[in-house]
Amino acid sequence: MGFKKTSAQPSPHDNIHLFPKVNTRKQRVSLPKLINKLNRLNFKEESVLFNFKHRKHGHTISMYAHPHPCLDAELECSWMEIEAGNDQRLRAFELTNFIMTDGQNSIQVVPSLLSVDGRQITVKLPDESFEAHSRAIKRHQCQGIKASMVVNSAVYQGDLIDFNAFYFRAALETTAPQTFDWINSNIPINLTLTDNSRVVYVGDCNVIRQTTGQTHREFVLEPSRNQFPRFRAREYRSDRHELLPNLNVAFTHPITQKTMSLKMLDLSGSGFALVEPYEGATLLPGMILEDVGIHLTSRSKLNCTVQVIHRTHLPDGNLVKIGLALLDIDAVEHMELLSLLQQVKNPDTYVSNQVDVDTLWDFFFETGFIYPQKYASLVGNKDKFKETYTKLYNQQPKIARHFIHMEHNCILSHVAMLRLYEKTWCLHHHAALNGKRKSGLIVLDYLCDFINDTHSIESANIHYTTGFYRTTNKFPMKFYGGATEYLNNPKACSIDDFAYFNFEAMPVDDGDETGCWKLATTSKGDLEDLQGCYEKKSGGLLLDAFDLTPENMGINTLSDEYSKSGFKREVHHLSIKKNGELKAVLAVNRTDVGLNFSDLTNALQMYIVDDSGFKPQDFKFILSLVSAKFNMLQFPVMVYPAEFMTDNNIPYEKTYRCNVISSQFWDDYMRYLHKFMKRARIR
């Protein structure tokens, strides 16, 4: 499969074959061919239109009829609307012709009348008829599609008769005291189409023409725009690539309910473009397509939900380019798509590929990422670490992603991300071989591209990205610190410091005798007080990203996702109170050993609300209560804010800085990233 990167502007495409131009001349239709077409109409339960002219007065009438199965030149048809007394009335008319159409081409047949009454008509077909291309754009008949038109706060209900990508025709009616006089053709109206179970289209339209009925009218409506932005405009759009050969995209059209298979023009991580023939176009900006299959091969496909966002008439033929945005796609399937596309940029870079775990461990030791002190902390659980990393790197769980740059089976650099909270992914394990600094930046660059392509898809759950790093580590201090300084907005990118140490349970005194310390279940009011304290001190994103706001209370779908992937995750929120007054909020995190080398995913996080009244022995007493409650003899403790520990003369081992970035401002972050990578000569 080949790729070709494209620009944002439409251009001639060598991989798209033009449709043949339409022949506008009349085509002869033989009797056998006409019979086949009539039987096709019978099979589809569609109708033909008979035209009559009054013998005396000269006026004409038209009547729809269903054709019966036809074996020879004799054709019987039943009227769609049977009216008493039509037997005598029809004798005053002579048959002119009947017309059959597929929405674009029509065949005019001039038969001989054999008999006619109020129930049916029998004719003898001629030896030949004529087919003409009567419409520039094909109309598609509709059944079961309800139309609702809103204009000047009045709602008119009815049915959609037919449509194409450029026009609708709907039959609407009034309900007293409504009147069609309320409709001003100079003012756009809002049209909603439904199929009784879902909305298939909503958009503003202009009234092109209408009939003159008092209570029933037909309206021809034209959508007022060819663009329907789903998301706000982005400066850093996903890279688009043309694929050779073209992929097929198949789906059921939400209005016609017919299966469509169209060629893909280009593809990115956030959407793709299709081509339709101009004369038969059916996809309208704003339309949502569900269960869309991107067929990689005859047996392999990716399923997604998309929305039509723009339509462009290509200058190099009778084609229409349809741009679609990804609304939803399975996380693993989207990862497969992005993995394919990122190989285009660099064939030595991989997204969540299967990795030989021994080679990965060699890499971590060789880069010094696992240094002696860190190894000493994990060696007691090395078998559990091995088991966890085998699942993480070979089973493609939805909760984890990794990015690897490798050559000839040698890993040069690595970075990973783990879904740590409901809408937050944690970046960790960033390392590169000595002398491969640029390789380390390459995987970081691709990780950011991955987030740029993914964060707008709700099922990806990327509202925030976070990372913990030591304040003694020069690169993250420069990289993440530079981003915080560049964005200069704590609601876009924030930094907060945690004090870190390992706690070992031991017998302690009962704490301060002047007050009563207790652990209680965290309430909504406790989180509101914590939020007020944090906003005053930091004003950043930490509590939103870590599910510690009142609106996130009780939400815990992520634990089920961990369980489905074969992992464990528990988060318990407790409040520390002294004499009934809130002092701190605890988040007790319990996961599989090894998800993070520093075991930050298994840490107890303590968020101080009121630092008055704390003594070192009180602190140890509270942690001992937690140890006993959860049967934990040893566990990491992270305390925010870090200065609480020094202010209260409580020893700790080191400081971890937590960086949080909001995807709402990801475009601003990408601008910073491009400048950073340009200075590093990566982009």
* Average pLDDT reading: 87
Number of structural domains = 5
List the total number of helices.
14
Q: Give the overall shape.
A: elongated
Low-confidence stretches: 3-24
Can you summarize the main beta sheet? 12 strands, mixed
Give the CATH architecture of the largest domain: 3-Layer(aba) Sandwich
Class by alpha and beta content: alpha+beta
CATH class of the largest domain: Alpha Beta
CATH topology heading of the largest domain: Aminopeptidase
Q: Count every beta strand, where a strand is a DSSP E run of 2 or more residues.
A: 36
- Strand order within the widest beta sheet: 25-26-27-28-29-36-30-35-34-33-32-31
Into which percentage range does the β-strand content fall?
Answer: 35-45%
Q: How far apart are the first and last residues' alpha carbons, in Å?
A: 25 Å
Whole-angstrom Rg: 34 Å
Helix content: 10-25%
Give an overview in words.
The protein has 683 residues and is of the alpha+beta class. The protein folds into 5 domains: 27-133, Electron Transport, Fmn-binding Protein, Chain A (Pnp Oxidase, Chain A, Roll), CATH 2.30.110.10; 140-223, predicted glycosyltransferase like domains (Thrombin, subunit H), CATH 2.40.10; 228-329, Thrombin, subunit H (Beta Barrel), CATH 2.40.10.220; 334-467 and 665-679, Aminopeptidase; 493-662, 3-Layer(aba) Sandwich (Aminopeptidase), CATH 3.40.630. The protein contains 14 helices and 36 strands. A 12-stranded mixed sheet has the order 25-26-27-28-29-36-30-35-34-33-32-31, sandwiched between helices. Strands 2-10-7-6-3-4-5-9-8 form a 9-stranded antiparallel sheet. A 6-stranded antiparallel barrel has the order 12-13-14-17-16-15. α7 (437-454) links the parallel β28 and β29. The radius of gyration is 34 Å and the shape is elongated. The two termini are 25 Å apart.
